[in-house]
Design a protein that fits this description.
By secondary structure, the chain is of the alpha/beta class. It has a single domain, classed as P-loop containing nucleotide triphosphate hydrolases (Rossmann fold). The protein contains nine helices and five strands, in the order βαβααααββαααβα. Helix 1 crosses helix 9. It is globular and about 55 Å long. The two termini are about 15 Å apart. It binds dephospho coenzyme A and adenosine-5'-triphosphate (ATP). The site of dephospho coenzyme A has 18 residues, from helix 2, helix 4 and helix 5.
Length: about 200
């Protein structure tokens, strides 16, 4: 039976960067962020629920979700965030399990579930091992602002919507320190995969 790795971290600590490295080893990655976009495409059940709760003001002219507008609402209001999570998360979980099992049935040696809210949503039961990608808080803020071209306020409101990276590090089976170069991150990943007998 293949090993299921739960890859997490806090926002902008480098999960997607490490996901790409897994793919270089031909280890498949199921990406919860990607699925969370898919389940709210127009016509899907979760889309209809989001519109009925948040109103047409969060739609763009082409009737797709205005993610920036919705983000401004939910990253500044815990109650609203919970309402959105309660709609989107069950649909994401269902798709995630389906994809995970498809890879396991195919006989893959390992499968990665890249889930930003792995600990917050108590999803550790879906995985065998947890791997946290960590950076110092100043690096996190800097990289987030640069990547999203966001203000300090916007970035901080997103960071504060999740458990701190320190808490996640404490709960992890293994941690990758992503403060340094991507090469150093790659080397740490390789060592962990050897330790878990995924690479020989
Ligand atoms: C609010 C939304 C529309 C904003 O979209 P946007 O394109 O700006 O951001 P994106 O989806 O790419 O998320 C970027 C990062 O924000 C963080 N994040 C997203 N949603 C949440 C949340 N509900 N709580 C805490 N952090 C979150 C994650 O670290 C994620 O990697 C979107 O994030 C969303 O639908 N969130 C609810 C679903 C969710 O929890 N997704 C994350 C894991 S399934
Ligand atoms: N070792 C590194 N050195 C320099 N920049 C990096 C490094 N790792 C990641 N980055 C950059 O930091 C930003 C955040 O990384 P990434 O998008 O992988 O984070 P994430 O954890 O997937 O974010 P999110 O929670 O939003 O999905 C990106 O712009 C990425 O290119």
């Amino acid at each position: 039976m293949g090993i299921v790795i739960g890859l997490t971290g806090s926002i902008a600590t480098g999960k997607s960067t490490v996901s790409l490295m897994f793919e270089e080893y031909n280890i498949p990655v199921v990406d919860a962020d990607k699925l969370s976009r898919k389940v709210v495409e127009p016509g899907r059940e979760a889309y209809n629920q989001v519109v009925s709760v948040f109103g047409e003001g969060i739609l763009r002219d082409d009737r797709t979700l205005d993610r920036k507008a919705l983000g401004e609402i939910v990253f500044n209001d815990e109650g609203k965030r919970k309402q959105l999570n309660d709609i989107v998360h069950p649909a994401v979980r269902q798709e995630m399990v389906r994809e995970r099992d498809r890879y396991l049935d195919r006989g893959d040696k390992a499968v990665v579930l890249d889930i930003p809210l792995l600990f917050e949503s108590n999803l550790t039961g879906y995985v065998d091992k947890t791997l946290v990608v960590a950076v110092d808080e100043e690096v996190q803020l800097q990289r987030l602002m640069e990547r999203d071209e966001s203000s300090k306020e916007e970035a901080l409101s997103r960071i504060r919507s999740q458990l701190s990276i320190t808490e996640k590090v404490r709960m992890a089976d293994e941690v990758i320190d992503n403060n340094g170069s991507k090469r150093e991150t790659y080397d740490q990943l390789e060592a962990i995969l050897r330790q878990w007998n995924i690479l020989s």
